[in-house]
Automatic annotation (TrEMBL):
Stored CDD domains: dndB (cd16412)
Top-level taxonomy: Bacteria, Pseudomonadati, Acidobacteriota, Holophagae, Holophagales
Entry protein name: DNA sulfur modification protein DndB
């Protein structure tokens, strides 16, 4: 027997996998009232239709909504309805059959299959900005077929979701001033001309590029951290810095000119790898804070370092077991090497890691000596 009291959603009816589903626009303020999310973490995963809510993701999503009230974009929420529904079409014939009102009993249970973090973020954002409650979000309603079906829907909805690469995120992000600086810089600065992979976050083995946009972004953020100046000042400074850095590595020019393959440079040298680029940015930041006048001449010391991957000095610093490591400790150890070359003092953390690597190498040398 249908409940006397129902929710009435304006909806469009569709068919997928020979089953009806409905698309509606729901006011944001009702999301927390009708959509159930079981937050009991002690329930075994096999008895839940969803993953446990990761509250660590919410502050960033809430801030996004509040900071961009006229330009935010949230995709549709997908939910299952556990209860009998009735669709009342506008007309019985023609296209009007697809549009109408979906009646859902108030005692029916709604389960979010995809979008629980969006729902939770919206709920929090409305507390700070009540007007958001009047705006709408698309909701796709499926008919519930039990726990196994809900679990399968969650798996299907998330299986083919592919997160955009960090590089294309930088390329397309119009809100981030740092992204704007890096985009403009790599498109105009000769040092990066033709050397930047703009879409992917990693380089294919035979790629003709030396750097990814995301690695230049991270390195430039490190370079400009806490430096005074407006956007245009930072753009000019970053461009000048990387132009000077590039002039210390002739291999970059040779790749740009076509006389040397990018693959060979990445294979034989370390100075084009993201971890080194980021370390150069961090060391450059310290240099600019200490010496805003003669920093260019001090960067010439970069040329004197042996950046060959065969140089045993880099093992345990940039590389672990012959493979480049992106771990934070390896970035710091690379910063220490660069600071030493350009005459900058080390921080307490850098000194500690330097002591650790020196101790480790001494221990390895002793073991090797006794083993002979």
């Amino acid at each position: 027997m249908e409940s006397t009291f129902t929710y009435a959603f304006p909806a469009i009816r569709g068919i997928q996998a020979q089953r009806e589903y409905f698309v509606s626009m729901c006011p944001m303020r009702i999301l927390s009232r009708i959509f159930v999310f079981n937050e009991e973490e002690d329930i075994p995963p096999e008895l839940r239709a969803q993953r446990v809510l990761n509250r660590g993701r919410l502050p960033e999503m809430v801030r996004y909504l509040l900071d961009n009230p006229t330009s935010y974009v949230f995709s549709a929420i997908s939910a299952s309805i556990d209860g009998p529904v009735r669709f009342e079409p506008l007309t019985e014939k023609g296209e009007g059959r697809r549009m109408g009102t979906l009646h859902v009993p108030m005692d029916a249970r709604f389960i979010i299959n995809d979008g629980q973090h969006r729902r939770a973020a919206i709920e929090q954002a409305i507390k700070e900005h009540p007007d958001l409650g009047d705006e709408t979000i698309a909701v796709v309603f499926f008919m519930d077929r039990g726990m196994s079906r809900s679990q399968q829907m969650f798996a299907d909805l998330n299986r083919h979701a592919v997160r955009a690469s960090s590089s294309i995120g930088v390329l397309y992000d119009q809100r981030d001033q740092s992204a704007d600086i890096v985009r403009r810089m790599v498109l105009k600065a000769p040092v990066f001309k033709g050397l930047i992979e703009m879409e992917r976050a990693t380089l294919a083995l035979r790629s003709r590029k030396l750097f990814t946009l995301s690695s230049v972004y991270r390195a430039t953020n490190s370079l400009l951290r806490d430096l005074p100046g407006a956007v245009e000042d930072h753009l000019a400074l970053a461009t000048a810095f990387w132009m000077e850095v590039g002039s210390q590595f002739p291999e970059w020019d040779e790749v740009r000119e076509g006389s040397l393959a990018a693959q060979d440079v990445r294979t034989e040298f370390l100075h084009s790898h993201g971890v080194v680029l980021q370390a150069i940015g961090r060391a450059g930041n310290a240099l600019l804070h200490q010496d805003s006048r003669t920093w260019k001449s001090r960067l010439k010391a970069l040329r004197k370092l042996d950046w060959s991957r065969k140089n045993p000095y880099w093992e345990g610093r940039v590389m672990i077991g012959g493979r480049v490591s992106k771990a934070e400790a390896n970035v710091i150890l690379t910063v220490s090497a660069i600071k030493g070359a350009i005459g900058l003092p080390l921080s307490a953390e850098e000194k500690r890691l330097e002591d650790n690597i020196a101790s480790s190498r001494t221990s390895s040398a002793r073991q090797g000596k006794h083993g002979r």
